[in-house]
Amino acid sequence: MFVRRMEQSPPPWKKTLRYAALTDVGLRRANNQDSHAVVAAGTDARWNDRGHLFVVADGMGAHAAGEVASKFATETITQSYLRRKNELPHQAIAGAVYDAHRFIREKSAQEEAFRDMGTTVDALLILPQGALIAHVGDSRVYRLRGQVLEQMTFDHEPIPILGGCWVESADGKRQINADWQSRTQEVADTLADRLLELL
């Protein structure tokens, strides 16, 4: 009797993913104000329910505050997204971005060293049905398809950031437009309508 050992093919959630993550301080700053987080599905159930989550944040603010804001954003978004198990993925990611915004605002108000800190953020959620992007600020998400690099997000004007949306007042002073909570459901609805094809 001849028995041939068959190799099992990897589950779909493993076949869809190949990634790398790297940040660089750049030429203008002494410290790196970028932060990133990856939460890759480790099981079929997690893949089907929550997918893979990638978050990138580019901090801003005096001294180390931008570095802190971007780290707060990536940590809060990943933790909040995973905690929101009773929500659909588009609602959970929109809520998670709002949770990060609220957390950074609170920290900024509580500690003088964190005053005026903020961060941009892009969260890419890869699901079995396609991809969702939650985007705040002027960082960008691109898709490489074959030999074509396509910009998937566009800069906001004025640039909203987690921690507040800085706008110029009539007398030239910066002020915060904090109307985020009322927009969270609107953002979730928009994300639900924008499920992107991956390939």
Q: What count of domains describes the coordinates?
A: 1
Helicity level: 25-40%
Going by CATH, the architecture would be: 4-Layer Sandwich
Give the spatial strand order of the biggest sheet.
Answer: 1-2-3-4
Question: Would you give an account of this structure?
Answer:
With 199 residues, the chain is an alpha+beta fold. The chain has one domain: PPM-type phosphatase domain (Phosphatase 2c, domain 1). Helices cover 30% and strands 26% of the residues. It contains 5 helices and 9 strands. It has helices at residues 12-15, 44-49, 65-83, 89-110, 184-192, and strands spanning 34-39, 52-60, 118-127, 130-136, 142-145, 148-151, 160-161, 164-168, 174-177. Strand 8 and strand 9 form a beta hairpin. The longest helix has 22 residues, at 89-110. Mean pLDDT is 76; it is low at 1-6, 164-169 and 173-178.
List keywords for this structure.
Phosphatase 2c, domain 1; three-stranded antiparallel sheet; 9 strands
Task: Provide a quick synopsis of the model.
With 199 residues, the protein is of the alpha+beta class. The protein is built from 5 helices and 9 strands, in the order αβαβααβββββββα.
Summarize the topology:
Elements: H1 12-15, E1 34-39, H2 44-49, E2 52-60, H3 65-83, H4 89-110, E3 118-127, E4 130-136, E5 142-145, E6 148-151, E7 160-161, E8 164-168, E9 174-177, H5 184-192
Antiparallel strand pairs: 1-2, 2-3, 3-4, 5-6, 7-8, 8-9
Helix pairs in contact: 3-4, 4-5
